[in-house]
Amino acid sequence: MKTTAVSTPRQATRDGVLVDPEWLHAHLSDPRVRVVEVDVSAAAYDDWHIDGAVLWNIYADLKDADYRLARTTALERLVARSGIGPDSTVVFYGYAPALGLWLMKLYGHPDVRILDCSRDAWRAGGFRSSTAASAPPATEPPATEPPATEPPAGGFLLGSEDSRIRADRAAVHKAIGEPGTTLVDVRTAAEYRGERFWPSGGMEPGGRAGHVPSAVHQPIDGLYHEDGSFRSSAELRRMFAPALLAGSGELITYCTIGGRAATAWFVLTHLIGRDQVRVYDGSWAEWGRIPDVPVDSS
Which helix (DSSP H) or strand (DSSP E) does residue 76 occupy? Predict the structure, then answer.
């Protein structure tokens, strides 16, 4: 896939995958740069958002009714109506920017980045924001599905799924107690112990709270500075259990809906340099609602 470089962020942004607010503000009018806010509802976006940004609602756009990742055709339509083309630089921010980046990496998009500050820090810095719904330069795909060999109108076909960064339910089940693979639960202690199903504290009718047997509990609190920027690689290394960083075994991260699991994956792979990390994007919202899978609440 041919790409067109926009520019290279400053050296301190580690591997070019993080961009500071000054860089993004200077590129908001660049048609090759698309900005996406990732959140669990439209409330924050409707209140205000980065000027020109579009919203990806995790529940409405990225997940199906069973909390599994939406079908590729639906995601292609989402990418198309977001104004993203094969040469676009896509910058994510919001509640779960790493989930957006992971998703685009999953399907092979070459240039995806994360804004290295929080929404509040962006606004406090006086950078451009808006309350108007953004209308990127994209053509909505037709109601009928296009042939498999043609991209959606205004967009492009996503690449083949990269199985090296995604784990499904079968892979997680196989990994239970498996030497060489570590399941990494990045939720809160209360969720891990089975005291709550959802992060907000609620339980799920018919669901079971707890964790996947043999999973290691590795909360990801403290990854950020006060302004929402990521801590240094050295600081981040100290936040993870040494056993997770040593060796060459595979790690599979999970949380509730995939946002925190993707954040852990992003930090481990892009900011620390750990190989062989996959995200179980179905996470507990899928696992905990299936009656015949093992659950540990000890």
Answer: helix 72-81
pLDDT in tens, 22-67: 999 999 999 999 999 999 999 999 999 999 999 999 999 999 999 9
**Which H helix or E strand runs over 173?**
helix 169-175
The alpha carbon dihedral of 88, 166, 289, 180 has a sign of negative
Dihedral sign (CA 23, 28, 30, 33): positive
Is 15's pLDDT higher than 80? no
- State the DSSP code for 58: I
Tokens describing residue 267: 């930090």
Q: 193-215 pLDDT, tens per residue?
A: 999 999 999 999 999 999 999 99
If you ran DSSP here, which 8-state letter would residue 296 be given?
B
Residue 255 designated active-site: yes
Please name every residue paired with 112 in a beta bridge, in sequence order, or none if there are none.
90
User: What burial letters (b/e) apply to 100-120, b meaning 16+ CB within 10 Å?
Assistant: bbbbbbbbebebbbbbbbbbe
Query: What is the average per-residue pLDDT within 153-158?
Result: 64
Q: What is the DSSP string of 221-283?
A: TT-B-TTSPBPPHHHHHHHS-HHHHSSS-EEEEE-SSSHHHHHHHHIIIIII---SEEE-TTH
Catalytic residue among 18, 220, 255, 285: 255
pLDDT at 209: 97
Question: Is residue 184 within 8 Å of 172, Cβ to Cβ?
Answer: no
Is residue 153's pLDDT more than 90? no
